[in-house]
């Protein structure tokens, strides 16, 4: 097995206040992220997401346990040089231009002057802010500030990019733009670690997820596997609709009609195993019923999430309500959001 790009073992973090109150934000977290993955960390408000990210960045010291990035201890200067971080709260001095902001940041990162200019031009183009390079940040929309933060996180060509709520506060159009930037970063080989409570965003960007709840990982795995509901299949047929339930009677555990496109009919079939599914298909074919398709039924990530946290969203709603806005067609970056 190749070395993981992120690995934690038994990570615990207890915040102690001056008055003696204790908050156990992480209660033994083990995660492993492979190079090239897009990893999504989900969890309701207060679950410990930001604490975990900050621990990986070396900004928070764990009470117990280990965190390693690219084989090095989290927080060492050489590990930090190879990562990018887009923080949850993004404030830039209003009077600075976009390129000046990035220049300051590049200096902090120790990028030599000869390289800075070229890189700044490149990342601003990449986030669609090229023509706004010499404009003051004070006049930027939220979506533009968000993209500037992404440009900042990409400035040092990171191998590993941390994003704390990258879609927060931006409209669906802006999200498409951000998603495309992340896709390009991935194509260049950057590993993504994204932390969000906007489930549809995670669903669209990530291929592996972990769900954090009260400081513990309560569910993790490949997104496609977590969302594939075992033993439920969508059957679509193109003929003899009314006969289907009778033909399948007794062959499967459950059948439920669902909406289908014009000229077709569809059912969700619950079966015990693959053999039962195949026996059902055999019956349909024997009766000359024309099968149009059969596919596994997927849970939405929301269902997986709610099940993992025990259906108790708690006082703080974990599901962004603006999440349900229909996705528009991708367009070139709108400058106002
Ligand atoms: N500096 C701190 N001092 C004391 N307690 C803290 C501190 N930072 C976080 N906490 C507590 O630790 C717990 C986890 O907080 P954290 O910010 O990591 O959660 P989160 O999952 O990022 O939440 P959100 O979705 O609201 O951003 C919370 O109970 C929080 O109040
Ligand atoms: Mg947070």
Can you offer a commentary on this structure?
This protein has 337 residues and is of the alpha/beta class. Among the domains are: 6-82 and 158-225, P-loop containing nucleotide triphosphate hydrolases (Rossmann fold, 3-Layer(aba) Sandwich), CATH 3.40.50.300; 229-297, Alpha-Beta Plaits (2-Layer Sandwich), CATH 3.30.70. The protein has 11 helices and 15 strands. It has helices at 49-57, 77-81, 98-108, 113-126, 142-154, 172-187, 199-205, 223-226, 244-248, 274-286, 301-308; strands at residues 6-16, 22-29, 32-33, 38-42, 64-69, 72-73, 83-86, 160-164, 191-195, 208-213, 216-222, 228-237, 254-258, 265-270, 291-298. Helix 4 (113-126) packs across helix 5 and helix 5 (142-154) packs parallel to helix 6. The radius of gyration is 24 Å and the shape is elongated. Magnesium ion (MG) is lined by residues 49-50, 88.
